[in-house]
Structures are given as structure tokens and as C-alpha cells.
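Dear colleague,

As promised, here are the two records you asked about, laid out in our usual form so they can be pasted straight into your sheet.

NAME FIELD: protein one
SEQUENCE, THEN STRUCTURE:
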Amino acid sequence: MQYRPEMTSTAWRRGPFRLRPRVPVFGQTYEDSAIELRVFKPQSRVFAIAGAGCTARALAAAGHFVTAVDINGRQLKYARGRADGEPARRGVVEHLLAVGRNLATLAGWSRPRLVHFLSLSEGSEQAEYWDRWLDTPLWRAVVDALLAPRLLRLLYASPFVGALPRDFGQQIRQRLQRGWRLHANCSNPYAAALLLGDAPAEYGPSISPINFVCADAAEFLENSPAAFDAFALSNIGDGASLSYQRRLRTAVERAAAPGAVLVTRSFAEPLPYSTANWAAQDRSLLWGVVEVSRLDGSHAGDPPCSIG
């Protein structure tokens, strides 16, 4: 099937923000690579969306052969630099999260209180502490206001705002509450990154060098001679048109080895007929959908009760 490029381009080509920033969009990746590490077979040939490079580095350190692709040249340069040992830097997202954390101090989120919360290890205790000290009416109002579509449209391009639930603030609050009951804070680097702005987790050296490529994901896969065993597609579908999503799916099928496994994420809420959503197992706590599937349409196993 032939596609007209102007009809099947992705909104990620321009980026998620109304204005083009001069720094990377992401300084770290808010995705729990433990999911990919669990479901990808050993030494897989992996196609990954580069982003901040965290997932690619985690997979390469575990022995996978990773090709990390990003359409944003500045973001890809940052991800490559991180793989070469350069220090983490704040991206636009980290600056926005810092603003949110500063506002949260007005709702009682003192650093000592957060440090104590992050030292806890038992789900019911974490949930009780959250409900008593952190999930205050003022904090709920701040989150709902900051994540309201009207305000998000001042910063984000309309395709990305349109991909979010209208009650995004409420959904994020519910996802956090769910996560506190499932995952031990004391061993969750994503919780510390989110609440305190801590630096992302470091990984061991890559067993095989990561192949970084600046390209559109669909275009790269349409022309790739490789056959990939696994795909870590991040939330590339958020903000993308249906025509681009169909183009990407066709390109993935073309470049996939038999039995290839896909991991995709979305900030959207799951569809009613979703049967194997791993979002609750993602310790980054933010996703509405984390789908693990094979290209034949089957699910790659049921989500475990907990990951780490």
C-alpha cells in the first residue's frame, strides 16, 4: 500500500509544544523499562523510540541489540550523549514538572514529608500516608487546573491535547493512587524522579553499542533491511492521526521478525474491550495504557501482580 507523505506524517515531526524549544523535550524517560526487560526475549533485536534514551540504555545494558530512532534531532543528540556518559539535563518536561512541584509546596508538599513518603515500602501504608498528608483538596485543585485542556492548549500542540482524557488531572491522580498501593516507593526511582525531581536511574554499560538514528519511525521501518524481534514504541500514537498510525503499523509488520513483541504506551484511558493492560505495573505511574502484544494480535502474557 502506498501512502501520501503529507497525509501520513506524524505530529511528533513538529513536536508536542506550540513553540519549538531550544532544549530537549525530555531529560529523562517516564517509562518503566522493567516491562520491556520482562517481555522481550534475551538478545532481541529491538527497535526503540529514543526519547531521552533511558529505555534504549536499559535494554542495551541487558544484552539487547538496540536501534533507537527519534524524529527530533536535538532529542536524539541528547540521548546519544547520555549513552556516551554525558550527564542528565533538564528538558522542557522537567522544567514544567518543577513548576508543578513548586506549586505543590503551597498544598503542604514539604521536602521532608516527601522524603519520608518515598522511604516507605508497604502499599497500604503508602496509600494511608498519601491520603492523609499529600492528597489534599488544594493539591487536587492545583493538578486539575494545571492539566485542564484549556491551560494545556497554551503550551501543547492541539493533536497532543486532543489525545488526552478531558479529565486528565483526575485520571493522573487516580493512577498515582493505584501505584502507591502496588509498588514500593523505597525501590521506585520513577516515584523519586516525579515527586522530587531526582536524576534518572543509571544503567550499566551497553553490551552492544546502541545504533542511534534521526528519522521518522514509520519511514525508517519502511526502508529498514533489519528484522526486529521487539518494538519499544513509547507513546508514539498519542497525537498521531489514524492514517499515520495505520502507516506505522504496516511498517512495523514489514520490519518484524516472526513472533515479534510490541510495547506501546498512551496517556489515554484504555478502551472498554482492553483485556491485558499493563499500565498498573508501570512504576512511572502516569500511563493509562501499556499494551504488550505480538504482531499476530495476541497478548504476550497476562500482566503480573507486580514488577519490582
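NAME FIELD: protein two
SEQUENCE, THEN STRUCTURE:
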Amino acid sequence: MKRNLFFILFFLIALAPSVSSAAVEVFLDPPFRKVNIGDTFIVNIRIKTEGECVNAIRSEIHFRTEDLKAIDWSSGQSLISLWTEAPKIDHEKGVITFSGGIPGGYCGRVIGDPGLTNILGKIIFSTPPSLSKETLPQFTNVNFTNAEVLLNDGRGTDAEATTKGAQISVVNERSGVVNEWLTEVKSDVIAPELFTVSVYRDPKISDGKFFIAWFTEDKQSGIDRYEVMETNPWKFGFLPSTDKETSWVPAESPYILKDQNLRSKILVKAIDKIGNERIVEFNPKTSIIPGVKDIWTELAGILLLCAIIGAIYYRRFISLKRIDRSVTAEIK
């Protein structure tokens, strides 16, 4: 299923044509480094397009669990913004997989750009403290076991992809540890980017149930998780000021709503790796009175309408009584 989504993805995001196929390189950076026992360090996954434009990447990376621990993944500076398979770390097998697309395609670094803008993601590794001088590996390798790249040519042509892994030397040369990841995330004081929440209903996705979808990025440490809260003043509260909010629940986009009547106020929270939060509130458009979203406004409108109708009938009732009295008086 995920593989099919990967190959379908280019139909949704291919915008610019390309004319030929050349070798595209997916590689780990740096290709070699020395780390100490207990260190936490970052390995970047990069892509070199060799003049081609690409729009989808699917990859699998392997490492030895005896020598390294993959403790996290960061997509904060990633070119990929549409994930068909969110980055996943299998700690037992030592396998990292991800799959996603680049809207509009990526054609390589812009000439004169001082930044290395070709990052697909960052793997955060640590060396187990249990390693000793006797069990230290001379070298341990982190390698690609699979890499598929599609060109942004409107047809999703397979690019000729080559890969290069990284070689890690683990040593015991100093006391104390270095944590590159902690240093990087501590500098992140910016919340995830502002985003919008939309409600949909599609029988192919949610069996006809209403669901919400959203997307945002965090260009510093990356998105850690999302949470959703549905609040319903009609069901849980008696006055607008006493709305009872349900608890936050972990969520991913798309998220099937619990309140299929679309009466609840919906809040979506994006949290980055350091804990900065962005909360977006969404009020469904469905309502009893077209164009009115708030249930209390609706009730006030209904009560006002009832009062007007009651006043009209009351006036007619009084008028009829007056007429009846006049007729009775004339008869007498």
C-alpha cells in the first residue's frame, strides 16, 4: 500500500518537465567520522541531483544495533514536505525507512547558495554506554539497502540512483560525552509554522466519515508530534463560558473526528522536538442556520425567531378578543 502511494505521489506534485535520466546520488554526510563512547551525533541524509529534477524519494538505511542506537529523526530542514511513509526507526532490526515527495520538484542547489539545502533528513545516533574497550568496533557502517528516486518529468520516471553510506569509528579517548543533537535543539525557540485545518469526507479514506487534515513544518528541530482536541459546548457545557474541553489525544493527519455531527470546536497542536507549540483552532461550518458556526448564536437566533412568532400570534389573539367583545356589546 505504502509503495503504491509512493509511485502515485508524483501525479499529485509533478509540475515541471525534465528530458533525460542521469544518475542521482543519495548519500550520508559526513561519510566518515570518529565518535567517543556515549556520544550523541547527527548523520545527514543528502541528495545530489546531477542536473536532474526529482520529486519523490523512498529509502531504507541499515545500521548495526550492537554498535549504534538510532534515537531520533529530524525533518526540520528536509526538502520533503509530503510524507507517504513517515520516517520510522526499527530499533530491533536496525532499519530506518522513509518515503515522501517534494512539491514542484528539486533540481539541486542554487548556484551561490552558501547553505547546504539538499537535506532529506537527519538521523540522530548515539553510541551505547555499554560498549567497552574490549567490545569497541574498529569501524561500524551505516548503509543504504534501498533507494528509489522518481524524476519530476510528469511521468514519474525512475532515476538511476546511486548511494553512499557512512563509516563510524567508535573510540574511548576522553572522559565526558558530546551531544550534538541537544546543542542543536536548544537553539530552537521558534514554534512550528502556522497552518490551516480542513474538514473532508471521502468514502475511500474514512468510509464516509468526516475527517480533518493539516500540514505544517518546523525548520529548526522538526515536528515531534501532533495532538487533537474536540470540544463540544452543546454536549458538555450549559453556558458558553463553561465549555468542558476533552483531553488532548495523539493524532496524525488525516484524523477521523469523533463528533461526526460537526458541532465541536476542534484544536490541533503541533509540537516540535524541543517542545515549542503551535495551536490552531477550527470551527466546522455545518450549522442549523446557514453561515452561523456558534451553537449559542444559533440558539439565540432560534429563541428570537420563536419570540417574534409568539408576539405575532399574541397580537392576533388580542385583536380577535377585542373584535369578539365589540360584537358582543353590539348584540346587547
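A couple of things worth noting about protein two: Residues 206 and 256 are 7 Å apart (CA to CA). The helical segments are 2-13, 180-186, 203-206, 233-236, 295-331.

Best,
R.
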